[in-house]
Amino acid sequence: MISVAGSWFRQASTVSNSYYQGLGNDSYESSATLALTGLTACISFRLPHGGGFFLSAEGGVGFGTAKTETHIWDELQPSNNLDAYGDWDGVAPVAAIFTGFERDSHGLLYFAKGGYRFQNFGEMEGTLSSPQRGTTA
C-alpha cells in the first residue's frame, strides 16, 4: 500500500544576552531569533502483510530567517558605542527518511516512527546595519 501526505512545520528559537558593569563604564546587550519554516511531501510504503511496518521518504523546502540586534555602550568613550541590526533569509532543501510501525485499535490509529531528517538554513543573504558603521551585505 502507498500513501502520500503533505506537511508544514516551523521551528524557532530566541536568545538574549546582557552584561552591565554596575560601577563601570560599559554595557552590552544582544539578541538573536532563528526560525525555519518547511513545506514537505511524504510518500510511505507499507506491505499488505507487513504487520504495520512502513518505510517513508520526505522531501521539500525550508525557508530560514535570522535576525539579530546588538548594543554596546561605553559611557567614558561614546565613540566606542555600537548598535547593529542584522536580518538574513535563505531557502534550502529538507529531506527525511524514516521507518515506523502503525496499528489501528478501536477506531484510533497509533503509530511510532524513527529516522533521519536533514534541514538547514542554507546559504543566507541579508544585511548587517549600524548607524555608526553603515550597512554590509
Structure description:
The chain is mostly beta strands. It has no helices and seven strands. The mean pLDDT is 90.
Structural class comes to mainly beta
Which radius of gyration do the C-alpha atoms yield? Answer: 23 Å
Mean pLDDT: 90
Poorly predicted runs are none
Report the oligomer.
Answer: single chain
What share of the residues does DSSP label as strand, in percent? over 45%
Biggest β-sheet: count, sense, barrel? 7 strands, antiparallel
The total of helices stands at 0
Task: State the end-to-end distance.
Answer: 50 Å
Topology pattern, helix = H, strand = E: EEEEEEE
- The overall strand count is 7
Percent of residues in helical segments? under 10%
What is the overall shape?
elongated
Write the layout of secondary structure elements.
Layout: E1 2-20, E2 26-46, E3 53-74, E4 82-105, E5 108-119, E6 125-130, E7 134-136
Antiparallel strand pairs: 1-2, 2-3, 3-4, 4-5, 4-6, 6-7
Which tags fit this structure?
137 residues; 7-stranded antiparallel sheet; single chain
